[in-house]
Amino acid sequence: MKACLVAFHYPRPSHREEFIGRVHRVAEVFRDSPGCLSAECWVNEDAVVSTVRCESAEALDSALSAVMAKAEADIVFDEREARPREVFQLMSP
Q1: Does pTM surpass 0.85?
Q2: Higher pLDDT, 57 or 71
Q3: In the predicted model, what is the mean pLDDT of residues 40-68?
Q4: I need a surface site. Which of 36, 47, 67, 86 has the fewest CB within 10 A?
Q5: Vertex 37, ends 61 and 9: CA angle to 5°?
Q6: How many other C-beta atoms are found inside a 10 Å radius of the C-beta of residue 63?
């Protein structure tokens, strides 16, 4: 069963471009993880949305661990964001 992670991020306007760069760097780490099918960054005027699709929930968990272990993968919520992230983990039926 495939697994997907969708995160809506709300960077402050002064940090928007920097934040998009952060999401792209994190997506690279995800894509290098075994079982990752895709990792992408999407934007609209209100949010930066990151999506990750993996072959399984186990592959997604492993990929998340790899991202958190990388010092350059800046994924911690901080003052550069205007409001908390919304994160959804989805499974294919």
Answers
A1: yes
A2: 57
A3: 95
A4: 86
A5: 65
A6: 23
The contacts of residue 63 (CB under 8 Å, 6+ apart) are 29, 30, 33, 34, 35, 36, 52, 54
Mean per-residue pLDDT of the chain: 92
Residues 6+ apart with CB under 8 A from 50: 5, 6, 7, 9, 23, 26, 27, 39, 40, 41, 42
State yes or no: pLDDT of 71 exceeds 60. Answer: no
Q: Which domain holds residue 9?
A: 3-91
Look up the CATH number of the domain holding residue 46.
Answer: 3.30.70.100
Cα separation of 91 and 4, whole Å? 6
